[in-house]
Amino acid sequence: MNARVREPEVLISEVGPRDGLQSVKATMPTAQKLRWIDALVASGLREIEVGSFVPARLLPQMADTAEVVRHALTHPGVTVMALVPNARGAESALRAGVHKLTIPVSASAAHSFANVRRTREEMIEEVRAIACLRDDIAPGVKIEAGISTAFGCSIQGEVKEDDVVWVASQCIAAGADEAGLSDSTGMANPAQVRRLFNKVRGAIGDKTGAAHMHNTRGLGLANCLAAYDVGVRTFDSSLGGLGGCPYAPGASGNVVTEDLVFMFEAMGVSTGVDLQRVIAAREALQAGLPGEPIYGMTPEAGLPKGWVQGVYAT
Predict the structure, then answer these.
(1) Which residue of 84, 182, 184, 296 is most buried, as measured by CB atoms within 10 A?
(2) Which domain holds residue 172?
């Protein structure tokens, strides 16, 4: 039997420094954020959403995002992302030097107003304005529309799949480079995930973006695997499972990065992330948020006896 080391076959996009930190009451000190990001990079993660450009009065946890971006940019080979809800935030992010913008656009009319105080149609126009701004300031920067509440909404209930496809298609037409689907409220199931990603891919093709799943009802990994089965290759996750949505009642817990990496690597699907090092990054997270509960089955159970990562039989 021969063996070889594979190049990464999926991209794990770490969203903890944004989605995780905005969802907890405590504010992680900036120095600790930088230490945490260094640990994430050391594990092999190559795309990190480091914060969001929103008013500090709304999310004081994100007040230092520009400084965090500057530090993250010192790591070569890492895509530095930030969430922006509007053109003002986008301009700040672009001038800070981010490589990629994420814009939240809800498929649920009720959630859209609760989250950003705009209708879905107004947010699509905001995507258009941000794309024009990007073209003027930093044309190399990518834009992803994150279609939130794509699988259900805790405010309005069912979200029609045709609405999701329409919103994703409109965002691409407005200038987004890709549109990913977010299970903001943890309502998705694997059959729904396969069906909806297939429908969206049928409409926008290879501009279909990441799967952003939550583990609210224990189906986060199953839903990631379902998305993988239908061709998704980028997955958002959060170290320790931090995260949720402050404007979606009952939403909790992103997919745990450590568990997601273990699942793919155990399947023989290379992530490029060193599992032992990403587990070790929990130390920096806990130091910055002492007492905050974090999650993960793999860190608790430990690695299987004889575990060797990244070498596969051929």
Answers:
(1) 184
(2) 3-313
